[in-house]
Amino acid sequence: MPQLRKNPVTREWVIVATERSRRPTDFKPGEDLAHRPAFSPNCPFCPGNELMTPGEIESYRAGSTRPNDPGWSVRVVPNKFPALMVEGDLDRAGEGMYDVMNGVGAHEVIIECPEHDLSPATMSPRQVEEMLASYRARCVDLTQDRRFKYINIFRNHGRVAGASLEHPHSQLIALPMVPQNVLLEVEGCARYYEFHERCVYCDMVRQEIGQGDRVVSLNDDFVAFCPFAAKYPFEVWILPRTHVRSFADETESRLRAFGAILQEALVRIDYCLNFPAYNYTVVTAPINQERERDFHWHLAIMPRLTVSAGFEMGSGVHINVTAPEDAARHLRNTTAPAMAAVESNGQTSSMP
Amino acid sequence: MPQLRKNPVTREWVIVATERSRRPTDFKPGEDLAHRPAFSPNCPFCPGNELMTPGEIESYRAGSTRPNDPGWSVRVVPNKFPALMVEGDLDRAGEGMYDVMNGVGAHEVIIECPEHDLSPATMSPRQVEEMLASYRARCVDLTQDRRFKYINIFRNHGRVAGASLEHPHSQLIALPMVPQNVLLEVEGCARYYEFHERCVYCDMVRQEIGQGDRVVSLNDDFVAFCPFAAKYPFEVWILPRTHVRSFADETESRLRAFGAILQEALVRIDYCLNFPAYNYTVVTAPINQERERDFHWHLAIMPRLTVSAGFEMGSGVHINVTAPEDAARHLRNTTAPAMAAVESNGQTSSMP
Question: Smallest CA–CA separation between A168 and chain B, in Å?
Fold first, then answer.
């Protein structure tokens, strides 16, 4: 019998169609994401091609090298085709019954490493840390701009996940409003807090760790699990185990622990599902306003194994063909060449 | 400068990124949806293969033919791999902090015509009417079942739109709850009504017809336009010009007018965009409860020209690379072989 499961924060229902249940090997990746060249001469993000991008906003680089020259390890540049423009005041206007704002915002690209063929699953732990540190530095900097109400960090991996360039990169969009999905979460957190006087995500972390069947891995500071009302097969969330409102509030040592569990989750997804396309996104507290108090930031990894169709687009209800408990079990049981190294590192351990 | 536009019903913001604006020819279809065989021997929906589907629920057929034999023009069957099961009581339970319901519902397939190679753009007007009449008959029938709170009718056209079978078909899912997206619309309609004492969609129809620049076509009973805050390039909505709460409330003669404008919109999309994949979905009032009063049903056609990525999935904010005004102008200016026939019919006419 299929099940309907409700997201306790957003109140969205998901159909877990167990009759259609699929094993990891039933999903066939449409593109080869495991084999790419280490350097691609025409790639605007490869070293030596720095002038093919707009001038860099920030970079981690060897002390003696200059901005927009090679020698960087992480490089942040404006998106060449931005969805929003950073210059200008925030004009609001009506157009009859409609509301419109001019498209003020920031759209930046975080080039994660010089190597064309890596990803956060295969980068060194140090590279992952620098990538995360640059996420945070950009959040802190952009929060100064009072026009912005939300900063969305996301990563598109593979063409079917919307990546138009192969070279490993994340993106950041700063928005002049709080987007609908985040508002739903903010309202859900507040509603739960009002009723229970506890954070909904803190409760979720406790229940998931206690129950264990949806946990993929955990370390002292973070837990990775397949959410109860997962919209997508093999969706994985990573949450701070204690209440941390915003990604920008994380410390350097906690980001190291976060990098370790993120990398482990991505390695498990790669080897369990044969290097699928995926998206991940940081869901964090809104900025420059009051609506942030009860938030508990998290990261959602969404492998692109199935196609959303008219039902999902019309109703907002997703049909998930793999029960999250099954997905977590498969991910826990995955062994990968890189796994041994991560585990001997002592930073993360899977649940029984 | 990009624009942020707000859906006046759901309050969702959309980014219209005019700097990235794309013309119809910039979108390249990934599959050939214009050329299919008229009959496909292994297709479970082709005539003669009726026993490859579960037994039919309803059909339009020649008087002398029997159920599950050839001779039908429209055929409704249960989905062989249903997302929800029609048998059983609606059990609700808690699982710690989570809510769960068993997956009671109906999942039906409307096989739109015997011909494997047609679509609602190329079927005869009579076939489109029968397809719509069967949509309505199934809605009326399933509304009798008090377990159901919403009936979602949708069509997936092409593989990238989620269609797993080529043969022209629509689907229907009856749900034991009102899905999130419909709730947002119900609440938005009620909020607007409370403030203005007018229906938001009635106002929208008036403004769109008065302004004209987003209108694709209109007839006496319906209007087709590209919505102000369209999430997708070349998204088209069709609305009743007068206040009609539910799709099931439509009369036979009005469904004829709806069929004509739907067919015209799909023909324009086919010829303007070189036969793209698309989804359409009927958005209508919930059933078996009070939450239906202020609703105004409509149909949304969403061509699948771009890929949703991490930003859209995380924030719920869509980036639309074609301004709805441009999309409507391109659709209005499209000429197609079938167009002359539709127009000489006198049922629809495009705006200047």
Answer: 14
